[in-house]
Amino acid sequence: MGWCHGRASNRFLTGAISALLAFSAPGWAQSVTPVGFSASAAQPTTNTSAPIHQFRDLHTFPRETVQAIYALRAGGDWLARMNQSNGRFFPGINPHSQAIASDSPLLPQLRATVALAHAARFTGDETYTIRATQAVLVLLAQIRVPAESPQLRVPTITDPQCSSVLYAALLAQAIWALPDADTALQKDAEQLCVFVRQQQRADGSFAQSDEYGPALLTLALHVQKQPDAAADAAPSAALLRGIAAAIQQFQSTPQADYAAAILPALCISAIQTKKPEITKAALQLGDWLCSCQYTRGDAPQVGWAGSFRPQPGATSPGWEPRSDAALIAGGLAAATQLTRHVPDLTRHTRFRAAMVEALEFTRRLQYTPESTTRFEPAFAQRFLVGGMCHAPSDPVATPEATARLVESHVIFLTSGEAGLSR
Fold it and tell me: How much is the pLDDT for 231?
């Protein structure tokens, strides 16, 4: 089947964003809610200290920024709607067969919680904050405190698709992303970090390749939050060992989604430590990811432009681009930020262009009011609008795919790149 939705027109985007972001503060446009959006999406946000407030004069920003704000708010609204009274995210529904997707395992629940928490911090939306906090508390229910090690928080999960390292790392990230998380939650996050460090091998490696990205980012954020890194060198040492092991893992089995997963931690560490070897590795990963991207000139299908092959030149029968393009866009956003610190103007131009194209691709997988007119309006608004599919042939909007879209757009909008013209 074809794309799960169509691209929204600029005229529609301008009207939709005005309604989605209608702040009560002076300077914000007042508008009615467009057809297909819930009334809550147009409710004023009075938190003028939230990062989104800098975009209040949206007409003055580049096209990609306008579209990013729309996509973020629509995706955040979808995640908030999908968060149920039990704290878990509804797995999604096939709009054609009306069949409910199989219940989301732990990993999509964790990623959706992290993304909604980031959206809450960026927008200042109280609904997002309430829903994200509820999801965090539900996830914390599967954590125990060992009597012999009260400084630890240990996951008690038994999910073959989500290791205890992934669980602890992503839950810590969700807590840190929450706006004004209380002291008890902050302590939980720090103690989850201690658990992640304890699962790391002596050479810095982790048991599973999918653990590197979340684990390293959690360690990097922990180091970033330390008021005095010299007082406790263990987190920094663990991060540096982990980065060295992650680079070796990539060299042995290069994959685009893995490179994108570890890239943000490398960029944070490179900016903090100014270690040339880490900076070099991060920039080389950015170069490699750019070489994996389909351009408008070489994409097999027009709609594939901006997406990524698993490896440069890799093709296989039946393959199609997927939502991991959003993950890669987030990695490139971090790399673009690093190029401003180096500085490296050539790479900055290249990375930013690749990131913008990747974000545009991810928005083609997001349902909009215009692309859902063939469905019953109430159904489309409840289950589709704002949600993202995993692939062009998959019509089910899922928490994990939508989480990737939301996070990548938050990273872009907070990277310092959103106010620049292409």
Answer: 52
CB atoms within 10 A of CB 275: 13
Topology classification of domain 10-413: Glycosyltransferase (1.50.10)
Ranges of residues in the chain with a pLDDT under 50 are: 1-3, 5-44, 421-422
The rounded distance, in Å, linking the Cα atoms of 13 and 300 is 28
180 φ, ψ (degrees, to nearest 5): 55, 50
With 0-12 CB in 10 A as exposed, 13-18 as middle and 19+ as buried, what is 313? exposed
Please report the pLDDT score of residue 98 as a whole number. 87
DSSP secondary structure code for residue 21 in this structure: T
- pLDDT confidence of residue 221: 94
| Cα–Cα dist 119/137, whole Å | 17
Instruction: Choose among 51, 7, 88: nearest CA to 419.
Output: 51
Alpha-carbon gap, residue 280 to 417, rounded angstroms: 21
Quick one: which H or E segment has residue 198? helix 183-198
In three-state secondary structure terms, 151 is coil
pLDDT given at position 21: 33
388, β-bridge pairs: 366
Contact 22, 30 (CB under 8 A): yes
Dist. CA 265–CA 260, nearest whole Å: 10
Alpha-helical runs (H) found in 37-84: 63-82
In this structure, which amino acid lies at residue 211? Answer: E
* Domain positions in the chain: 10-413
The reported pLDDT for the residue numbered 235 is: 86
* Contact assessment for residue 10 and residue 360, using Cβ atoms and an 8 Å cutoff: no
Cα 401 from Cα 288, distance rounded (Å): 23
Residue 256 is inside which H or E element, if any? helix 256-273
Q: Environment class of residue 152 by beta-carbon count within 10 Å: exposed (0-12), middle (13-18) or buried (19+)?
A: middle
User: Residue 39: what residue type?
Assistant: A
Task: Write down the pLDDT at residue 418.
Answer: 85
- Whole-number Å distance between alpha carbons of 306 and 356: 8
pLDDT attached to residue 249: 95
Helix (H, G, I), strand (E, B) or coil at 159: strand
